[in-house]
Design goal:
The protein is an alpha+beta fold and 87 residues long. The protein is 40% helix and 25% strand. It has helices at 2-11, 16-26, 32-45, and strands spanning 51-54, 57-62, 67-72, 78-83. A hairpin with a 4-residue loop joins strand 2 and strand 3.
């Protein structure tokens, strides 16, 4: 999964809407830069074992922060971030 990690880090992108969605799902009020830093840090620090490709998405689970990041494999666009405490 390290190939996914490297590809994601080099091609990751965001839409304006996803920032709002992430804040809503995490019940936070992060700035765009804070969201990008948080996601980038989680991906960089992840050892690769928590990357799962299912269909057209990659799911990155971070047990420490209790979140799951969903990324589209074709566009490398962040789709959402889910709070695992809510499940």
């Amino acid at each position: 999964m390290n190939s996914y990690k490297n590809q994601i880090l080099s091609k990751i992108c965001y839409t304006e809407f996803v920032y709002e969605r992430i804040n809503k799902k995490l019940n936070k009020n992060y700035k765009k830069e804070e969201i990008e830093i948080m996601i980038s840090t989680i991906i960089k620090e992840n050892d690769g074992f928590e990357f799962k490709k299912i269909g057209k998405n990659i799911y990155i689970t971070n047990p420490l922060n209790k979140i799951r990041i969903t990324i589209n494999t074709h566009s490398f666009r962040i789709i959402t971030v889910d709070d695992l405490n809510k499940k």
